[in-house]
Amino acid sequence: MPCLISMTGFGRAEGASELGSFVMEIKSINHRFLELHINLPRDLAALELPLTRIVREKLTRGKVDVFVRWNPSPDLQPRTEFNQSILQHYNLETCRIAKELGRENETVSLEYLLGLPGTTENQSVSIDQTALLALASETLLRALDVITAERRREGEALDAEIRNRLTQLENLRVAVEARREEVIAIYRDRLRKKAAEWAQMANIQLDPGRLEAEVLLFADRSDVTEELVRLQAHIAAFYAALDGANSEAQGKSLEFLTQELLREANTLASKSRDTSITTSVLGMKNEIEKIREQILNVE
To answer: Are residues 144 and 58 in contact, defined by beta-carbon separation less than 8 angstroms?
Structure first.
């Protein structure tokens, strides 16, 4: 059965070849859209765009941070070469100046000479960019597999929790439905007793038709049949969405259904004329709020 996917997770993978080694870590938390940040070493900035495309193909929502560490092979490390002619020139000149200043006994350290401009030069080694991208892509895909598996495991827990809340919500809806007719009967009896007391005190005779009209008016104002039917339909739609949870951005459609559930619960609360029904409706709103909290983590 399809299962929800959480937006929270962590994935890590390592990849190595004759070029060197990559370590990639991916962290994600919930977010309304996909907010992606890839943290690359400065000398690998050219890989950002292709790596971004790979992540976007796998993840659709969440605040995602990708951390990339790159250790090139020793054979590809930049080499430092020394310009001996410039070093000799600096050495001769410093000796000459020291003699002119009468300080020929003083010597200039090699470290000082090496710090002068032009004495050293870093020779970079050419790297096969195609092979480097292939290694980076392979490592990233394996890290994405790890985080996807973790997000699915988290999604299974979310799915179970939401289904449990929906069961409680349906039980409360049934309780309200069962109480609905009883509330009207209780109101009718209460109104008759009050009317009988008023009629006795005023020494008048009440019109039974008028009394029944008041009962019908109360029943019409407090009728929640339509809200209960819509609530049942939204719960069924919620289950259907959970069972088809392999579609993209499933969380957005579930967020919409949660809003619809809350709307019906609020309407029920406004029409409630009974303490028992009010208590059940408050329980509904609590369950819906718990569902909403879980939905915020669904991709």
So the answer is: yes
Measured CA to CA, the distance from residue 108 to residue 90 in angstroms comes to 10
- Please state, in angstroms and rounded to a whole number, the distance separating the CA atoms of residues 231 and 170: 9
Q: Which amino acid is at 44?
A: L
Residues 142 and 157 in one domain: no
Closest by CA to 288, choosing from 267, 269, 253, 261, is: 261
Type of residue at 232:
Q
33, HSE (Cβ side, Cα atoms, 13 Å): 3
Report field, pTM of the whole predicted structure over 0.85: no
Do 169 and 55 have their domain in common? no
Give the phi and the psi of residue 65 in degrees, each rounded to 5.
Answer: -120, 125
Report residue 180's pLDDT band, with 50, 70 and 90 as the boundaries. Answer: confident
Query: Do 217 and 102 fall within a single domain?
Result: no
